[in-house]
Amino acid sequence: MKNHATLIRQSHFLGTKIRNLRKQHHLTLEDLSARCVKIDPEAAPSVSYLSMIERGKRVPGKDMLGIIATVFQKDIDWFMDDALSEKAITPEKSGHGGISGMALEPGFLFSDNILQIAIPEMLAQTGTTGRQFAHLLIRAHQEHHRNHFPDLERAAENIGLKRMPLSVAELMDIVQKMGLTIKWFNRTPQEVLDETGAHSKSTVRSFFDPPGTLYLNELLKTEPARLKYDLALHIGHCTLHNKDGLKSVLLAGKNQSNTGSSANALSFGPDAQDILSAWRDFECSFFAGALLCPRVPFRQMLERHSYEVSVHKQLEVSPSVVMRRMTAVSSYPHWHYFDAYPPGTLKAVYRGNGIPLPWGNMRLVEDPCQNWAVFRLINNSSPGTSAQVSVLETKDGPRIYCCESVSVEDMAGNAHVLCAGIDLNPVLDTQGRDARDIAASLKQACIKGRGDADIPAAIRKDLLSAARILNIGWIQRGLDNPARVICSRGAVCPRTPGCYAKSASPDTLTVMEKMQQAIRDEC
């Protein structure tokens, strides 16, 4: 261990290295200080002292530097001048967006006029409803902004004053101050046919009737977590939209929403009312999460509890609120979130890292990969949680994901699965590891094991280091289970034998490509 005099002589780039590491991991000074306090409350640096270290105004002692090194899973020597590298002292600049874009050429074909003509036809031919198109637009908007909507956050904080947890009584008090009248009604769940033709249960949870009446289902009285969410959502509507009548009915069940009339609910084309209503549903839902779990105190709570979903019990909110808010408040941007109903309806999707969807067109495809954690829990009726490490081949090469899935029931009694996960490749790359090489090695190990395998010791060590940096407890639980190779569709399944007969020896050539190849062979 170096003494303090040696640290001073060899620490010219120490502050720069710490700052760049912190920013690469998307941590604020407050986040880093909190991580240090968690390791050693006595020797941990304060926010102001960390700032001075990064600006070169102070040199930390060996104990303090050891704590910082532990947070980033680095040796102390890495911070010294004799371990200098261009990458360590050069800040990385990254763009926004969960999904990489592509150049659309020739450009004149993608003009507003042509797209307005083509989109309705495309939706009709692919069987995509206006409602589904609206949710696709909103998801793309979320992913482009990485679930960061400061205006909605501020609006919620102005109402809730960053209090956490908010009780039912406190929310009722906010409702009363807004001049709203609450009326209770009694509606039990009834069996209905959803938009895919499948049977499920549904009931009305709540709805707003302008100018100031809020109708709540009596069932909510026995479920305070759901009652709090409904109250928060309608508070959001009144705050953001001035108590107007353009607000969907809040349903229990796997229906996407109650946007649009029955006449156009299944229309295959964009409908202005559908899109407006779906957007308002999103705004109010985001507001509700921010009101119940305000950004700063909730993030601090997640840090203390290593991002365990079980914190929902302390806050008396639903697991879905906690899991969705994780994607919005975490310093790590590469999250995904699914809310899935059997046999394959996606009610909510967020992909901050562009992970391929296990379904097509927001509906069940013919050959879904049964090894996605979402599918495995859907097909397993037993309650509980499941942490899984998965490796998936994408257009950018193999990637390692880890997720926590929870089997729950909605207010109508329908079972569904919530899944929050992260892409581990970026944090591995930040640590100086070759993420693609690690992912390729793990994929081969799984394929040799006919689809799943215990994680090799060397890879486990790298992933455990990533888990400690991210401070996410369920990653370590996932490491204790076999890793699974997953695929976007059964037709490209890498398993032997494949999950589907046709995927055992996939033929990727089109008819025209086969004809071209035959001509080449003849010549």
UniProtKB/TrEMBL annotation:
<dbReference type="InterPro" id="IPR001387">
    <property type="entry name" value="Cro/C1-type_HTH"/>
</dbReference>
<dbReference type="InterPro" id="IPR022055">
    <property type="entry name" value="DUF3612"/>
</dbReference>
<dbReference type="Pfam" id="PF01381">
    <property type="entry name" value="HTH_3"/>
</dbReference>
<dbReference type="InterPro" id="IPR010982">
    <property type="entry name" value="Lambda_DNA-bd_dom_sf"/>
</dbReference>
<dbReference type="Pfam" id="PF12268">
    <property type="entry name" value="DUF3612"/>
</dbReference>
<feature type="domain" description="HTH cro/C1-type">
    <location>
        <begin position="18"/>
        <end position="79"/>
    </location>
</feature>
<protein>
    <recommendedName>
        <fullName>HTH cro/C1-type domain-containing protein</fullName>
    </recommendedName>
</protein>
<dbReference type="GO" id="GO:0003677">
    <property type="term" value="F:DNA binding"/>
</dbReference>
